[in-house]
């Protein structure tokens, strides 16, 4: 993974951890012919929490001058996609994450990192 992308993922992950995002998984898709270079998957405790996490990523994009292409699912909050072009962030509520099991779709790709919220 290119250094600039790795640093970007670290900043995003740190922000999501600070905001109590849970079960954060980062998957490197660079060179896989995928729609993005990296995929972040995490769990929110409620729809409001999910929107707060998405807002926090949008704030980070403004602060760091990262591209923010679009957000999908924000109003409902069950699954929010934050598309940053080179990074796709998927914020799920636990039942929705279990239903879609997005990580299993990319099972052949080794996750970059697994982080848990620190107490």
Explain what the structure shows.
The protein is of the alpha+beta class and 119 residues long. The protein has a single domain (3-105), classed as Beta Polymerase, domain 2, CATH 3.30.460.10. It has four helices and six strands. A hairpin with a 6-residue loop joins strand 3 and strand 4. The longest helix is centred in the middle third of the chain and has 18 residues, at 47-64.
CATH level-two architecture: 2-Layer Sandwich
Residue fraction in strands: 25-35%
What is the makeup of the main sheet? Answer: 6 strands, mixed
- Mean pLDDT over the full residue set: 88
Instruction: For the largest sheet, list the strands in their spatial order.
Output: 3-4-5-2-1-6
Span between N and C termini? 29 Å
Poorly predicted tracts of residues: 114-119
CATH H-tier superfamily = Beta Polymerase, domain 2
| Total DSSP E strands | 6
Can you count the helices? Answer: 4
Alpha-beta classification = alpha+beta
The CATH class label is Alpha Beta
Helix content: 25-40%
| Domain tally | 1
- What is the approximate shape? globular
| CATH topology category name | Beta Polymerase, domain 2
